[in-house]
Design brief:
The protein is of the alpha+beta class. It folds into 5 domains: 89 residues, no CATH class; 158 residues, no CATH class; 154 residues, Sandwich (Jelly Rolls), CATH 2.60.120.260; 216 residues, no CATH class; 57 residues. Strands 1, 2, 3, 5, 8 and 10 form a 6-stranded antiparallel sheet that branches. A 4-stranded antiparallel sheet has the order 4-9-6-7, covered by helices on one side. A hairpin with a 2-residue loop joins strand 11 and strand 12. The longest helix has 26 residues. Keywords: Signal. It comes from Maioricimonas rarisocia. This is Planctomycete cytochrome C. InterPro entries: Cyt_c_Planctomycete-type, DUF1585, DUF1587, DUF1588, DUF1592, DUF1595.
Length: 800
C-alpha cells in the first residue's frame, strides 16, 4: 500500500482554499473611518497618542482604517473598548459630554460590526478546522470498534485562545500528515487483527505469595511475605511495591481487582495507597496514575482498569506523604533488611488480572469492517473473505465506510477515488481483505475525514450534528444524530435542545466537563510542576489526583443541576475524599470515595479559586505570584483579556531571603503608567489568593525560601481594591464582591464554551449574541446548563 504524502497534502491544500468575496472599500483599499470617530480622536486623543512616541506605543494619527488587517482591527476594538469603559480619555484630562462619548462608541461599534459581519457572510466566522488528535482517536474508535490509544502517536497540539480546537492555531505539515497516516495504519492494524484472530482472553488469579518477592535471599523492590500476606511498608524507595507478576504480555486494557488491608493503621485514618503502572526500572521512571484507595484493618477489594503496554506492571504502595516511613538497612528491601516495621503498610491478600476491551466485541468489529461478508478460516493460512463479486463488494463496503467516516452522505464523484484505490488493489492481485484495508486507509487520510465540512451561513443538519457531537463528546455523531440530520430535524430548536440533554445524560457525555476543563482551566498541565517536598511536605500524588477529581465532580454537579456559574467564584459545597479533606485541614470526612461536602466558613474553601488543582496550575511549585494568578483569573474566569507586558519592563525576581514582600516588589510596576492600566486588573485577584500556597494549602506567612522553611517569612496581606475602587481585606470579601456581578462570569463561560465548541474566538460582531445568551441564562440565575443550551442554540454556534 502506498504512502503518498504529496498527494494527500495537495488534496488537503486544494480543499482549504477559502472563497473570498470583494468587499466595499475606499480608493486606497481601506474601510472609511467614521467621521464621528475621526473627529473624536482628533479632539481628545492626539495630545497623548500622536506619532511613534505616543503613550503606550499607540500612534492614533497613523491608525489606518484597513479593517481587513486583523492587527489593525484588534487595535480599533481596543480603542473602542477603552473609551466605552471610561478608561480613555483619562477622566481628569477632558470634560467630555456623555453624548460625544456615546456617539464615538456607537459609530465605531457599527463600523467594526458591519465589517466583520460582511466578511463572515462570505467566508464564515470559523476558518477551515480539523479534528484534534483526541477527536481523531475517538472517531477511529467509533468507526473501527477499537480501544487502543491513538492520540499519543500524533504531535502535540498548539493551544490558541486556550484551546486546541481553534482553527487559527491548527497547523498542518508533511510531518503531521505522516504521523496521521501512521496512526491510521496502527488503528486499521488493530481492527483487522481483532476481526480475524481469536478473542483476546487472559485471566490471572494471584495469591499474596504470587505477587511477593520470589527469592527471599534476593534484594528487590517487591512486597515482602509477612504472616502470609504480601506487605509493602510506607517508604520513599523508588519502585518499592512493584508487582512483576502483573507484567503485561501484550499491550491492552486490563481490569485489576486488588484485595488488601492495612498494617499499623494510624488511629485517625486508614493507609492511603497509590496504584501506578510502568516498567518500574531506573531507565524508565515514568509511572502513570491508575488509581488510589484507603486501606483499613478490614480487608476490602478495589477494582481498577488501565491501559497496560507490553512489559509494564503495577506498583502498589502507601502513597500518603504524611505517614511515618520505614528504614531499610542498605537502602534495599529483602534478605532481612525490611522485616516487620513499626510503620504503616499495606498487606495485599490477592490480585486478579483480566484482559478486557472497552467498546464493541470482535463480532461487531467484523460487521463494521466487512458488513455481511463471511470470514473464512483456512487452517494455518490467513483468513479470507467469502465473496462472489469482490469488486462489487469492495465498492459497496468502501462507500458505506466513507459515509460513516465523512459523517454525511457522499455522492458518486466524492467516493470514486477511494473505491478506485480498493478496486485497483484487487486488480493488482491483492486479496479482498487487503483491498478493503487500502480503501479504508485512503478514506481515513482524506481531508473529508480530517476536516469539518462547513459552508458560510447557517450550518446544514449534517454539519450541525458534526459540530454538536465533537463539542459535547469529542467524537463522531451517533446513529440518532445522523438520522435526525437526514430527516432535516436537528436544526429544529426544540429537537436541538432535546439532543443536548440526551447527549449530556449519555455515558459519553460524562467526559464533556473533563475534556473542556482540561483546556479551559489548564488542568491538562497539572503535572507540569511539582511542589517542593521540603516546603510542602503533605503534598503527594494521591492529593493531586483527588484535586482533579474534586474539580471534575464540582463542574459536573453545576452542569447536572444547572447551578449558577457564580459558584465558580464562591460556593458553599465541594467534593472531597478523606485524603484531600485532611490536606485542606477539614476533619469531618471519612472514606476514599468522593463525596459532596457542605462547607463551613472556617474551612476557607468554596469555588474553583480554592480548588487545589487551580492553585497548583497557577503556581510554579516553589512560590506564588499574584501576577500569574491574577492574569489567569482574569483570562479564564472573569473574561478580561490582559495583554503581554511591555518589553522594557523586567520580570520580578523572587526574594529568597524573605525580606521583601511581593506587594513591595510589585509597587515599581504599578508606578509605570504603561503597567498600571493592567495591574489595576491583575493585582486584586492575585493578592486575594496569596493565602494559598503553591500546593493549595492555607498559609498566614510567606515561606523562607533560602532556608526551605514553609513559613517564617513576612506576614501575608491579601487586602486590595478592585478596579472600580471597592476594597476588600481578605479572600472571602474578594469573593463576595466578584459574585455581585454574576453576569460577567456568565459572559466569560459562554465565550469559552463557544470558542471551544466552534473553533473560533468570540469576535466583535458576536457580542450582541453573547448579550442575548447571558440574558436568557439570567432566568435560571445563570445556570451552567442553561448557558450551555443557550450557547448551542445561538447563531454563533449554528452558523459557520
Amino acid at each position: 500500500m502506498r504512502n503518498d504524502l504529496t498527494i494527500i497534502l495537495t488534496a488537503l491544500g486544494c480543499a482549504l482554499i477559502p472563497t473570498v468575496a470583494v468587499r466595499a472599500a475606499d480608493q486606497n483599499g481601506q474601510d472609511r473611518i467614521p467621521a464621528v470617530a475621526s473627529s473624536f480622536i482628533e479632539a481628545t486623543c492626539l495630545d497623548c497618542h500622536d506619532g511613534p512616541d505616543g503613550e503606550a506605543g499607540l500612534d492614533l494619527r497613523a491608525l489606518a482604517g484597513n479593517l481587513d488587517d486583523g492587527h489593525l482591527f484588534e487595535k480599533w476594538v481596543r480603542v473602542h473598548d477603552r473609551v466605552k469603559a471610561g478608561e480613555m480619555p483619562p477622566p481628569d484630562s477632558y470634560d467630555l459630554a456623555p453624548a460625544k462619548v456615546d456617539a464615538f462608541v456607537s459609530s465605531t461599534a457599527d463600523w467594526l460590526r458591519d465589517h466583520q459581519e460582511q466578511k463572515w457572510a462570505s467566508e464564515g466566522r470559523v476558518p477551515a478546522r480539523r479534528l484534534t488528535r483526541l477527536q481523531i482517536e475517538r472517531t477511529l474508535h467509533d468507526l473501527l470498534g477499537i480501544d487502543i490509544p491513538i492520540a499519543n502517536r500524533m504531535p502535540e497540539e498548539q493551544r490558541t485562545g486556550g484551546f486546541t480546537t481553534v482553527a487559527a492555531g491548527q497547523a498542518m505539515s508533511h510531518f503531521q500528515i505522516e504521523k496521521h497516516v501512521a496512526a491510521v495504519d496502527r488503528a486499521l492494524e488493530e481492527a483487522f487483527r481483532r476481526a480475524l484472530t481469536p478473542p483476546d482472553t487472559e485471566l490471572r488469579e494471584m495469591s499474596a505469595r504470587d505477587v511477593a518477592r520470589r527469592n527471599p535471599k534476593r534484594r528487590t523492590r517487591e512486597p515482602e511475605m509477612v504472616d502470609g500476606l504480601a506487605v509493602v511498608w510506607s517508604s520513599r524507595l523508588t519502585f518499592y511495591g512493584r508487582l512483576p507478576a502483573t507484567t503485561a504480555k501484550e499491550d491492552g486494557w486490563y481490569r485489576f481487582r486488588i484485595k488488601a488491608s492495612s498494617l499499623n493503621t494510624p488511629e485517625d485514618r486508614g493507609v492511603w495507597c497509590a496504584v501506578r503502572r510502568g516498567f518500574c526500572v531506573s531507565s524508565a521512571p515514568l509511572r502513570p496514575w491508575v488509581g488510589g484507595f484507603e486501606a483499613t484493618d478490614e480487608p476490602q477489594e478495589w477494582t481498577f482498569e488501565t491501559w497496560l503496554p507490553k512489559g509494564e506492571m503495577l506498583e502498589v504502595r502507601p502513597g500518603d506523604a504524611t505517614l511515618k516511613i520505614a528504614s531499610f538497612r542498605g537502602g534495599q528491601v529483602g534478605a532481612g533488611e525490611g522485616g516487620p516495621q513499626n510503620v504503616p503498610g499495606v498487606a495485599i491478600h490477592s490480585v486478579t488480572m483480566e484482559r478486557i476491551h472497552r467498546g464493541p466485541d470482535d463480532e461487531t468489529i467484523r460487521t463494521l469492517l466487512f458488513g455481511d461478508l463471511e470470514v473464512q478460516k483456512n487452517g494455518k493460512k490467513l483468513p479470507t473473505l467469502k465473496s462472489d463479486a469482490p469488486k462489487k463488494d469492495a465498492a459497496r463496503l468502501v462507500r458505506t465506510f466513507a459515509r460513516r467516516a465523512f459523517r454525511r452522505p457522499v455522492n458518486d464523484d466524492e467516493v470514486a477515488p477511494y473505491i478506485t484505490v480498493a478496486t485497483s488493489s484487487l486488480a493488482d492481485g491483492d486479496s479482498l481483505l487487503d483491498a478493503l484495508r487500502a480503501g479504508y486507509r485512503a478514506v481515513l487520510t482524506s481531508p473529508r475525514f480530517m476536516y469539518f465540512r462547513e459552508a458560510p451561513g447557517a450550518l446544514n443538519d449534517y454539519a450541525l450534528a458534526d459540530r454538536l457531537s465533537y463539542f459535547l463528546w469529542n467524537r463522531m455523531p451517533d446513529e440518532e444524530l445522523m438520522k435526525l440530520a437526514e430527516q432535516g430535524r436537528l436544526s429544529d430548536p426544540q429537537v436541538l435542545h432535546e439532543q443536548i440533554d440526551r447527549m449530556l445524560n449519555d455515558p459519553r457525555g460524562e467526559r464533556f466537563v473533563e475534556d473542556f476543563a482540561a483546556e479551559w482551566l489548564d488542568l491538562s498541565e497539572i503535572d507540569f510542576t511539582e511542589p517542593d517536598r521540603r516546603l510542602y511536605r503533605e503534598f503527594d500524588i494521591i492529593v493531586q489526583q483527588s484535586m482533579l477529581q474534586e474539580t471534575h465532580a464540582f463542574l459536573d454537579h453545576l452542569l447536572r443541576e444547572d447551578l449558577s456559574v457564580a459558584n465558580l467564584i464562591d460556593s458553599d459545597f465541594t467534593f472531597l475524599n478523606s485524603r484531600l479533606a485532611r490536606f485542606y485541614d477539614i476533619d469531618r470526612i471519612e472514606g476514599d470515595e468522593l463525596q459532596q461536602v457542605a462547607l463551613k466558613s472556617e474551612d476557607r474553601r468554596g469555588g474553583l479559586l480554592t480548588h487545589g488543582s487551580i492553585l497548583k496550575v497557577t503556581a510554579n511549585g516553589t512560590n506564588t505570584s499574584p501576577v500569574i494568578r491574577g492574569v489567569w483569573i482574569n483570562e479564564r474566569l472573569l473574561g478580561v483579556h490582559i495583554p503581554p507586558p511591555p518589553e522594557n519592563v523586567p520580570a520580578i525576581e523572587p526574594d529568597i531571603r524573605g525580606a521583601t514582600t511581593i506587594r513591595e516588589m510589585l509597587a515599581k510596576h504599578r508606578s509605570i503608567e504603561s503597567c498600571a492600566a493592567c495591574h489595576v486588573k491583575i493585582d486584586p485577584p492575585g493578592f486575594a489568593l496569596e493565602n494559598f500556597d503553591p500546593a493549595g494549602q492555607w498559609r498566614d506567612r510567606y515561606p523562607l525560601l533560602a532556608k526551605r522553611r514553609p513559613e517564617g517569612g513576612p506576614e501575608i496581606d491579601p487586602s486590595y481594591e478592585l478596579e472600580d475602587g471597592r476594597e476588600f481585606s481578605n479572600f472571602e470579601e474578594f469573593q463576595s464582591l466578584i459574585v455581585e456581578s454574576p453576569e460577567q462570569i456568565a459572559r466569560n463561560v459562554a465565550e469559552k464554551l463557544l470558542t471551544y465548541g466552534t473553533g473560533a474566538p468570540v469576535g466583535f460582531a458576536d457580542r450582541p449574541a453573547i448579550d442575548r445568551i447571558v440574558a436568557q441564562a439570567a432566568e435560571s440565575d445563570y445556570g451552567f446548563r442553561s448557558l450551555l443550551h443557550a450557547a448551542i442554540a445561538s447563531p454563533v454556534f449554528t452558523r459557520k
